[in-house]
Design goal:
Layout lengths: L5 H25 L4 H25 L3 H25 L6
Helix pairs in contact: 1-2, 2-3
Length: about 90
């Protein structure tokens, strides 16, 4: 059993962050109107799961645990951000 490589994990994290940020932006650009929020949310969750799996695989961590960790914490961050936006009246929908 090999241990996780911190340098490799950090580089993978930087790359996945960049890709993970770009794909929902592309979805937002391609989907107009009322479906935009739903589509961007779904694309974001799918990207979080996929890139969590890539990060886990590359860093030598268990695949399911890494995927779920990124997906769950990312979903919670999205929900918190939407909640703050609703409180301050900045959510469009």
């Amino acid at each position: 059993m090999s241990s996780a490589n911190p340098i490799q994990a950090a580089l993978t994290s930087a790359a996945t962050f960049t890709v993970g940020a770009a794909l929902p932006l592309v979805a937002a650009w391609l989907v107009p109107g009322a479906a935009n929020i739903l589509v961007v949310t779904i694309v974001s969750l799918l990207v979080l799961a996929a890139l969590g799996a890539v990060g886990a695989r590359t860093g030598g961590a268990p695949l399911l645990r890494g995927t779920l960790r990124v997906l769950i914490w990312g979903a919670l961050a999205m929900a918190f951000t939407a909640g703050v936006g609703a409180v301050f009246g900045t959510v469009v929908g």
